[in-house]
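call fold(seq) -> tokens
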Amino acid sequence: MYSQLIREFVEQETLPASYVEDAAEFVVPLTELIAKQIIAANECLVIGINGAQGTGKTTLAKLCTKLLEARKFRIANLSIDDFYLTKSERLQLATDRHQLLGTRGVPGTHDVRLLLDKLSELKILKSAGSCEVPRFNKASDDRLGQNDWQCISGPVDAIILEGWFVGVPPQEIADLQQAINSLEEDEDTDGQWREYVNSQLAGLYQQVFKQFSSLVMLQAPSFEQVFTWRALQEEKLQRTTSTNVSKIMNSEQLHRFIQHYERLTRHCLDVLPSQANIVFELGSDHRFKNVSGMNS
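ret:
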């Protein structure tokens, strides 16, 4: 029942033709598993999808949502990226705490209380109710106005929350001492930025992650592969956005930008394969290679 939907999705998202085969082999079984969990549950489920930048977690979340909705389930598809603080809020945070917090992405640059509030609203949403969820424009690096937020009608059977570090625990304090790249060496010499990010991760974010009934991980082959995939994302953004292309990052800007996420991305790759409920192993060609946990 899914084959036509998958082909249409691959065309709409301009994905490689091989994604049709991968979706049939890997995404359809995941969708069926989620469907069984929804049917067995007596409440709205929250499912996390973790993956480093460029792994395809947003694509996976969209396709799962599409296939589940074809089965008449009501799905709220959220990205933690849409809960970034506004540009002005991040600039104020950079002034008050550390200059690197002006750059979106790491724990501490999201409105986590807003996310927790929206999860609570969605879980109890009735058939006549609706919930407005924020949206973030990465090209302009700012949250959209409330008139452009996503409106989700109730009731909701499951919430899918995807993000590059969702589900990960904080690092040990001792692991923060050594800088791991030039950004940390040059711009976080005393470690205050990484300590702040880690303390934020240990706080309200964990309240979000504890709500997951399942955590799905898209496991990149290595951190080194992430830059290539993230560069492809930036190229796609440049092709599809109507925003001034001067706001799109070039290679040098992107390299510095990625270094903000290197520490936590490596941490995810180290610890989550043994903690996530389902792990999709990706090859350097971006295709699904293997899956573990699907039968648990």
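The chain has a mean pLDDT of 93.
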